[in-house]
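INFO  loader      accepted 1 record
INFO  loader      residues=165
INFO  predictor   begin
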Amino acid sequence: MQKERKDKSFIKKPIYPGGNAAMRNLIRENLVYPQEALQKGIVGTVSLKYTIDHKGNVTDTHIIAGLGYGCDEEAERLVRLFKFEVPKTRGVKVTFHKEIHVHFRLPKKKPLPQKPIAQYVYSPVSTSSKPVERGYSYTLTITPSDNAKKSDDTSGKRTIDETSK
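INFO  predictor   done
INFO  writer      dumping C-alpha cells
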C-alpha cells in the first residue's frame, strides 16, 4: 500500500482558461487603439501589475511603465476583462499578483479595393419558349491596373488602352 503523495505546492496559481494564447487573443480582439495615440503615432508597450482575488477576478491594476495618450487606461481596461480559474487551496483565500505587457502597434492600413470601371454580362437569350438547357455565360470585369494607360477623350468619356507585349 502506497501513501498518497501531496502536492509539492500548497498554493496553486490561477490559470487563464485557454492559456496564454487565449489571453493574447482576448487582448487582440478587444484592444481599441486610443484616438489621441493614433493621431500622434504612438507605439510601444505598457507594463502593468494586477491583482487576482480568490474568485479569479482582477481587482486592482498598477501601471509600471506607461505610454500615455490613453494607452495606459486602455491596457487597464483590457486587463480588467480577464477572468481566471483559481484552483482550490485548502480553503485559504489567496490573492495573486501578476505582471503583463500590452503592446500597442499602429494598425496596418488596408488598401482600398478598386471599383470596376465597366462590367459586361453575357447570357445566351433563347427565342423559343423553352429554357436553354445547355449553353454558357460569362462576365467581363475591367478594373484599372498598373499596366493600363489612362487617357481622356474630348467627349468626356474615360477610356483605357491596354498595352500588350
